[in-house]
């Protein structure tokens, strides 16, 4: 059983003011995932809250893969610094970095998993790509849809989910957490096939 952890980063802005924002949906996924990892989030010198442990159990009853769940303590557009520092501290290869983030270009309650690609205007991803000098990391994209009417995207992502949206959101967060667990256990291709088929 490898002791090299996966680093799963949930993007968002720090503090209670932003906790319910659409932009913080990546951190909401980590809160659901954390139920399957013994322990609790603690402060790390890399300016992040981390939870280091084993994710669930295998089919044979052994402890699951080692994972470091991380919530950067910086604002979204500075996420790269904490992510880069955590990768160095835990000696995580870029192949085992997964970033969970909100995605304007996907309808609400839609999930997509991929490796690499552009940042689509997402400032958190831009910061990470710049700090790492690479875009070749995994992303779990959680759809939040486009803003209504003439609302600016920047205003939309910093608003809380509505009461109606939160009903579907709860299911989406559970499915996103399950997709992360599947990725760590079964790899990218199998998880993509299962996840995308379920959502099409």
What does this structure look like?
36% of the residues lie in helices and 20% in strands. It is of the alpha/beta class and 200 residues long. The chain has a single domain, classed as Rossmann fold (3-Layer(aba) Sandwich). A 7-stranded mixed sheet has the order 2-3-4-1-5-7-6, with helices on both faces. The N and C termini lie far apart (35 Å).
Annotated CATH homologous superfamily: Peptidyl-tRNA hydrolase
Would you tell me which CATH topology applies?
A: Rossmann fold
- Spans with pLDDT under 50 lasting ≥5 residues? none
Radius of gyration (Å)? 16 Å
Q: In percent, how much strand structure appears in the residues?
A: 15-25%
Largest sheet, spatial ordering of strands: 2-3-4-1-5-7-6
The main sheet comes to: 7 strands, mixed
Following the backbone from N to C, one meets helices and strands in this order, namely EHEEEHEEHEHHH
Number of domains: 1
Separate helix tally: 6
Name the structural class.
alpha/beta
Instruction: Provide the CATH architecture.
Output: 3-Layer(aba) Sandwich
CATH class designation: Alpha Beta
Helix content: 25-40%
Distance between the termini: 35 Å
What's the shape? globular
Average pLDDT across residues? 93
Say how many strands there are. 7
Give me some keywords for this one.
single chain; 200 residues; alpha/beta; Rossmann fold; seven-stranded mixed β-sheet; globular
Short description:
36% of the residues lie in helices and 20% in strands. It has 200 residues and is an alpha/beta fold. It is globular.
SSE layout and pairings?
Blueprint: E1 6-10, H1 25-33, E2 42-44, E3 48-54, E4 66-72, H2 80-90, E5 97-103, E6 111-115, H3 123-132, E7 138-143, H4 153-157, H5 163-186, H6 188-199
Parallel strand pairs: 1-4, 1-5, 5-7
Antiparallel strand pairs: 2-3, 3-4, 6-7
């Amino acid at each position: 059983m490898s002791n090299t952890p996966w680093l799963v980063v949930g993007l968002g802005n720090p503090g209670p003011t932003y906790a319910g924002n659409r932009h913080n949906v990546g951190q909401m996924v980590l809160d659901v995932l954390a139920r399957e990892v013994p322990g609790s989030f603690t402060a790390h010198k890399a300016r992040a809250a981390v939870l280091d442990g084993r994710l669930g159990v295998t089919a044979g009853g052994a402890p699951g893969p080692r994972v470091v769940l991380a919530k950067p303590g910086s604002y979204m557009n500075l996420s790269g610094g904490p992510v880069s520092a955590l990768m160095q501290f835990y000696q995580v290869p870029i192949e085992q970095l997964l970033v969970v983030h909100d995605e304007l270009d996907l309808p609400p309650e839609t999930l997509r998993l991929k490796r690499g690609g552009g940042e689509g205007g997402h400032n958190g991803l831009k910061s990470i790509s710049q700090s790492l000098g690479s875009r070749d990391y995994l992303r779990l994209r959680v759809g939040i849809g486009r803003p209504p009417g003439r609302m600016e995207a920047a205003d939309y992502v910093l608003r809380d989910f509505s009461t109606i949206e939160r009903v579907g959101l709860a299911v989406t967060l559970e499915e996103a957490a399950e997709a992360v667990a599947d990725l760590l256990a079964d790899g990218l291709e199998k998880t993509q096939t299962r996840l995308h088929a379920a959502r099409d």
